[in-house]
Structures are given as structure tokens and as C-alpha cells.
Amino acid sequence: MASKQTFDAIVVGGGPAGTAAALTMARGGLKTILIDRGRFVGAKNFFGGVMYTHALADVLPEYWERKPPFERPVTEQGYWMLSPDSAVRIMHKSEHYKQEPAEAYTVLRAHFDPWFAEQAAAAGALVITKTVVTHVLQDAKGRVIGVRTDRPDGDVFAPIVIIAEGVNNLLTQKLGLIKNDLPPRFVALAVKEYISLSAKDINARFGLSGHNEGAAIDIFGDATLGLPGTAFLYTDAGGISIGVGMLLEEFVYHKLKPYEVLARFKHHPAIRHYLEGGRPLEYGAHLIPEMGYDRMPKLASAGVMVVGDAAGMVDAVHREGTNLAMTAGKTAGTTAIAAHRANNFSAGFLKKYRKSLEASFVLKDMKQYRRMTDFLDSSPHVLGTYANFLNDAALRYFTAHGMPKRDMEKQIVGLLQERRSFAGVAQDMFKLLRAMRG
Ligand SMILES: Cc1cc2nc3c(=O)[nH]c(=O)nc-3n(C[C@H](O)[C@H](O)[C@H](O)COP(=O)(O)OP(=O)(O)OC[C@H]3O[C@@H](n4cnc5c(N)ncnc54)[C@H](O)[C@@H]3O)c2cc1C
């Protein structure tokens, strides 16, 4: 990269947010550069992961003809609540999920992200890898005018910089758009393994008829030792993605090691059968921002916008992140195009970005669940208590004891009371409803 290179727009980070922004701007006629630190775009990126096609279609309407590297469509999904030795499962299967293209697919990011970046390059964006952006450059008035990279003579200039650096938002912090590093209360740590398994075994174990069916299961309760967090089990084409995530604070407070929590989960009697004979091929750990709507960074300032995980755009309740990231990337890209047309890159003009996001599902959903992390933080017993209760209650309900059913029902109420008083249950339900309603 030669020095003093000038573009219309610079994007830092080639995850779903950054690539969506770069693709949008390149298609809008802006001379765009996308800079990523990976050996190739997406080299170190990973997630659960279920990707939602509504957001992809919005950025790249012809995505289906471009043959995206999806693993399997998600045709069955739901929740499992684990106690130490059993599971209550709520699954949903529908013919509706079998439409092609489907609404959601499992994806491996090391395959998807480079493909997505190729689409941005095909639209005209210059994609540069193996390059770390170390600083955001500002003029004397504090307006962002470009970035410094770790390449020799690696300064790049543009009137618009879109920061899509992911959860480790060092540049966002350096710019003062967010005050501190994320405290452990507001960031989750997830560990994931990709386990290679034959498609035949996957289909047999998950009850799938072929590669055109797939399952996505989110799991609570004993999976995270009853602590606030979730685990997941997703089917890929020739393997299984399995992982657990909990707030960082819980790992620290309970002196738990993430890989031990995952190993314990993998040996759970309701889980281990799915993995038998599989070969672990990949292992990784990644943070998930859970600061919520009220603690997001400032989303725009003169010459700069922040998108995706860097801005905390995650909906942990519905395990959504990539779609929020893509929609935010597209919105920032569209705002950048409008800024060029108006030749106005001021903080005032770029406020349009946040305004558009407030009108979309991205900030509406984040606003709705703004209290969720605080709820889990103040009621850490909730997932463990009710998962264990549901399993014990199901055992009573589904077993014939030769006792009148009225007595069985009383026993189930007793099982709940052993764990939580009526007042406690009412309080939990009230707090949960409040957290769900915003
Ligand atoms: C275990 C796990 C499970 C998840 N499951 C799901 C799921 O099932 N569905 C879902 O939709 N979401 C899921 N998410 C969330 C989702 O992965 C994120 O919300 C999404 O990846 C955010 O995209 P992004 O582009 O903002 O950031 P990222 O995907 O993190 O991309 C950031 C990019 O920036 C680059 N970068 C960073 N700093 C620099 C720098 N200084 N210079 C150059 N390049 C830089 C990185 O290399 C990276 O490519 C999950 C996350 C985790 C961790």
C-alpha cells in the first residue's frame, strides 16, 4: 500500500458488518477500501452459528445465485432445558422452514466471510488483508480523516471511516466513542468446538432426512451449571458446532475454566450420544458484547461510524448478531453515500445513521431487551432453578405412580416450593416480563 492513498471511504474489519458496509458503498459508486487483519478475511472469525438470510438479501439481493457457502438450512429449532441427568425439549419443525432459500442456515465463518468479502471485491471494493489498523487519524478539529495501518507508509485517507472491528473495540475506545473496556458483567465468553462427523450419523442422530435439513438447538440449565448463559448444538454439513457461553463475570466469580465447562457439557447424558465417534477439528474462544442498548458507544462522530459488535449490536435472547451487523453495515454504507452526495461528513449529518437504525429492528430489538443482562445479573438462579424444576416436574407428570393425579399435581407444586416461594416465583416472572418488554 503506497503512502497518502485516498479513498471515498475506509472500512476497518471484514466481518459481516464491515463487508456489508463496503459492498453497499462500492455498489453506490464510492471508492472503498476494506482492511482486515486476518491472513484472509474471516481467517480467525467464528460464531455459533446460525445466519439469517433476510439481512444478507437486503445487502446482496442476488446472494442465492452467487452460491453462498452455507452448511445446512435450519429446518428444526428450539430449546432444551437440562438438569444434571435429563432434558426437557421444546422443538419446532415446520415445512415452512424448508422453502429455498431458507430463512436461516448454519454457517462456518472461515468459509462464509471470505465469500462475502469476494462479493464486496466484485462490487469494486479494494480488499486488503494481513493489515492491522492501529489508529484512526483525526484533523485538528477532531474530525476523522483516515487510518494508520501497521504497514510501512500505511496511512490511508478518506472523509468517512466505518469501524467494524468487532467486540475488541480498541479503535472505538481510542476515539472516545465509548469510555472504557467492557466490564466482565457486560461481556460473555463463548467457547466452541467444531466436531467432524459423517452426514449419515448427523442425520440419524438428529432425525434429519438429508443435507437439506438441519437443527439449531439452544440449551440452558445444567449446560452452564445453572448459571446465566447458554449452550448450543447446531448441525453443519459434515460436522456439529457445539459450544457454551456465559458472562465473563460468572467464569471469574465461580473460578470456572471455559474449556472445562464445555467438556462437562459434552459429557452430559442428553448430549454425548450426538458427538460419539466425532473428531474435534477446531476449537476457539470469542467474546460477545452484552452491554445492551443503554451502554452502546456513540455510533457516529465527524467522519466516522461504528457498526456491529464494535457497537454492541447483539440480541442474545434470539442469538442474533450477524444480521444486526449486516443491517447496521448497510445502513452506515447508505449514510456514507448520502454524505458524499451532500458533501457533508459532519457529526450532525452522520446522525442519520443512528436515526435509521432506531427505525429498524436493530435498535428496536436492542431497546426492547435493554434490561436482559441486568435481569440475569440480579437473578442468577433463574435458569438453573427452573430448568431443574421443569425436569423434575416432567418426571412426575410422565410417570404412573398409582397415586391419584390430584396428589401428583400437589407434589409438582411442592417441587417448585422447595426451590422458590410463590413470592419468589412471582418476582422472577415480573422481572422476566419487564426484561422482555423493554
Ligand atoms: C460463540 C458465538 C456464537 C454466536 N452465534 C451467533 C449466531 O448463531 N447467529 C448470529 O447471528 N450471531 C452469532 N454470534 C454473534 C456474531 O458472531 C457477531 O454479532 C458478528 O460476528 C458481528 O460481526 P462484526 O462484523 O461486527 O464483527 P466480527 O465478526 O467480529 O468481525 C470483525 C472483523 O474485524 C477485524 N479487525 C478487528 N480489529 C481490526 C483492526 N484493528 N484492523 C483490521 N482488522 C480488524 C477482524 O479480523 C474481523 O474480521 C455469535 C458469536 C459468538 C462468539
Q: Can you give a write-up of this model?
A:
The protein has helices spanning 16-27, 53-59, 109-122, 170-174, 199-206, 248-253, 258-266, 272-275, 322-342, 347-358, 361-368, 372-378, 382-398, 405-419, 422-437; strands at 5-6, 9-12, 32-35, 50-52, 70-73, 76-82, 87-93, 104-107, 126-128, 133-138, 144-149, 155-157, 161-163, 187-196, 215-221, 229-235, 239-247, 279-289, 300-301, 304-306. It starts with a strand and ends with a helix. The relative contact order is 0.15. The protein has 438 residues and is of the alpha/beta class. The strands form four sheets. It has a seven-stranded mixed beta sheet. The chain is 37% helix and 24% strand. Strand 15 (215-221) and strand 16 (229-235) form a beta hairpin. The protein has 15 helices and 20 strands. The chain folds into three domains: 5-69 and 108-178 and 292-368, FAD/NAD(P)-binding domain, CATH 3.50.50.60; 184-289, 2-Layer Sandwich (D-Amino Acid Oxidase, Chain A, domain 2), CATH 3.30.9.90; 376-437, no CATH class. Helix 1 (16-27) runs parallel beside helix 9 (322-342), helix 9 packs antiparallel against helix 10 (347-358) and helix 13 runs antiparallel to helix 14 (405-419). The chain binds flavin-adenine dinucleotide (FAD). Flavin-adenine dinucleotide binds next to helix 1, strand 4, strand 14, strand 17 and strand 18.
